[in-house]
Design goal:
Blueprint (H helix, E strand, L loop, with lengths): L8 E7 L5 E13 L3 E6 L3 E4 L4 E3 L4 E6 L4 E8 L2 E9 L3 E2 L4 E12 L5 E4 L1 H10 L4 H20 L8 H12 L1
Enzyme class: hydrolase
EC number: 3.6.1.15, 3.6.1.6
Catalytic activity: a ribonucleoside 5'-triphosphate + H2O = a ribonucleoside 5'-diphosphate + phosphate + H(+); a ribonucleoside 5'-diphosphate + H2O = a ribonucleoside 5'-phosphate + phosphate + H(+)
């Protein structure tokens, strides 16, 4: 797989299981790009929804994508601390057009004190039935949710205290 080069801009495109485009983030700066990990950053970035609505992100964010794990993690830098939004998703793929993944609805919101809420379980169940997710996919997604929650509790990877701050400092060197 081709990897994005640090210092370049990339689009991020999320899809649904049925192949339909779900959401597009226009400009994220690549901070690290390998075959297995992409770390990006954005601030006040244009986001386009599948229905054409647009909005602008409100704060700087560090985005973590992995080619082997079925989740991605966004660390948002706010005045009162770092909040995380985690998507249960397919591993990413990257081509010259964009970084791409399938969003499977299950989400976790993590607060600065590392407490968290599970989100959109009803939406997941609805889409699982509508799009006929195979049993093996359902198992993979729930196993990766368990792994993600373990990372949160252990403050591993993007949840380690210095991760977002260090990558945000790197981001600032490009601005």
């Amino acid at each position: 797989m081709v990897a994005p080069r640090p210092g370049t801009k990339m689009k991020i495109q999320s899809y649904k299981h049925n192949g339909l485009l779900h959401r597009v983030w226009e400009n994220s700066l690549v901070l690290k790009g390998t075959d297995t990990i992409v770390i990006g950053a954005n601030d006040r970035t244009l986001v386009t929804e599948s229905d054409g609505r647009t909005w602008i992100t409100r704060e700087p964010a560090i985005c973590y994508f992995h080619a082997r794990h079925w989740f991605n993690i966004i660390g948002m830098l706010r005045d009162d601390g770092i909040y995380y939004y985690c998507n249960i998703s397919s591993p990413f793929v990257y081509d010259d057009e964009a970084l791409k993944y399938i969003d499977y609805d299950l989400d976790v919101k993590v607060y600065p004190d590392m407490t968290y809420n599970l989100l959109d379980e009803d939406e997941y169940e609805e889409h699982r039935r509508q799009m006929n997710y195979p049993e093996v996919l359902d198992r993979i997604l729930h196993n990766n949710m368990d792994l993600l929650l373990l990372w949160i509790r252990q403050r591993k990877g993007p949840f380690s205290p210095e991760f977002v701050d260090q990558w945000y400092e790197r981001y600032l060197t490009y601005r």
